[in-house]
Amino acid sequence: MSKTKQSATEVLPKAGPGFHPGHPRVGGRKKRTAQMARDLADSMGCDPLEFMMRIVNSDTIEQTVIAPDGKKQHIEVAIPLDTRMDAAKAVANYLYPKLNATAVTGANDRPVLMASENLSVLMSSSEAVELAQRLALLMAESTPARIISPDEIQTPAPS
Description:
The structure is a single chain. By secondary structure, this protein is mainly α. It is 38% helix and 9% strand. It contains six helices and two strands. A two-stranded antiparallel sheet has the order 1-2. Helix 3 crosses helix 4. The model has no long low-confidence stretch (mean pLDDT 80).
């Protein structure tokens, strides 16, 4: 038996980083889509979501047990609470949207500026209430005001 030394490039020419040409992994695996999963579940006659909802909704489930003589027997088995809770968590993702936290900030990630007024002084006089109503109607009819950021506020130059 004679041993001849061959270089790796002679045995398997490499096309670049990764697997060599001819290797079964070249090209990656086929993508499995959600539609393919639904078709498979339909062909098997099962619905995983329905099964999990049954687990959440009942205390027992029917299981098949093979007896020592080889015969199949159907028995009712209790479902532990932690299993039911896990199923409920999984089902909840399909029934309710997940809530996202959203930060509310002002311009340039600064705090939001808010203004408040003490309206009790304004409401103490009927004349002031009437003037406030007129002002509100005029403001509603006019063009909307533009909200400016603190950077846009110009301070008057000292005189």
